[in-house]
Amino acid sequence: MNNDRKPMDPAIKKYLIDRLLNNNITVSELVELRPEINEYDLSEIIQHIYDLNLEQVRKIAALQPVMAKVDALKNSQRNTRFIKKVKNNFRKHMAKHNGLKNRVVVVEGDSWFNYPILLSDVIDWVSMEENMAVYSLASGGDWLMNMVNAKKYVEQLSTLQPDVFIISGGGNDLVGNRRIAAMVTHKGDSNEFEKSAFAKYLYENAAHPPDKPEDFKRGTQFISKDFYALLAFFQLQYYFIINGILTGGKGKGEEGKFPGIQIITQGYDYAIPSDKKIAGYNPLKWYRLFARTFLGHGGWLKTPLQLRGIYDPEDQRKIVYAMIYLFNEMMIDIGRIFSEMLGENRVFHIDSRGSVGKNGWTDELHPLPLHFKKTAQAFIQCINHPNKSGSAVVEVLKHQGGAKK
Q: Which domain of life is it from (predicted)?
């Protein structure tokens, strides 16, 4: 948007927001609304989607005290290493062995970036790269709305002036506090996907058609209009964050405070609702039994869906499949928006879909370290060679063969 353009009439903005909440906003209307959204609007929208007042929303989104302490401890250790690394002339030199440019990276995100027990998550693996100094703000269990409201990333971007900003968020907004139960209907006769112009646009213009189209179709038959409102809301939030970084919120043709910065987003793989504990005990994977026993295994996906009256494990899996599919396509669309706006790829997406497989999960939502490592390798590739493929999407190596792009 141009600086001399008049702000949208408040009545028109309210009309478009109401259409978003009722799952009947058109794609052109969403495009019109995106650059007009501010923090107050985002707060109003989330209250209506969750049917709660702002205080209640903040309460359910707040990090648990124990979780916050564990997250802070892990970040403190990471950031101590970051400071030590950067102070040693890091910004002036190439990496010693591989000839790659040194990169300063700031990370904001959730438990894929800060897993709350002692195993290597995505950012742990990225931090091990000699030419990458990583400052972490990530918190397991954090919600995207908290990241927007707290704006910790803004302060650190200004202070550290990084080469790369990585962000992962949205999963906890959907599944935290059993919220996924409010996004589905047990009857399996929903036609809200057909009503959602935005979801249909993502499907029809997908970077990758679903590998299981019948599973996708069956999953959408249980998904209510609130999920589609949340999907569009996620894009508004990400647009708000990324536009602020790249253009200072000014829009097309304007340069932000961080010229040349590379932004990388992250989607999740197709999680499998399950409340099964691990049979037997493998001392090399002690954390898996620990996670499934003490970190709410089953409580994020399976139990809320059962409470909603959806008992068939295959229907449960297909619901999550459809949601994760659309979330990733929405994130890829964000990259397209900014590529067109800026005339170059500055926003990249790491596509993890299909990378973990059926038995590759530590718990309902988090892969085993091996699969975290595979995702991290896609990030590393993207940071070191952002324009190698010409694409703004980097695929994680699939579980059953395939290659990175």
A: Bacteria
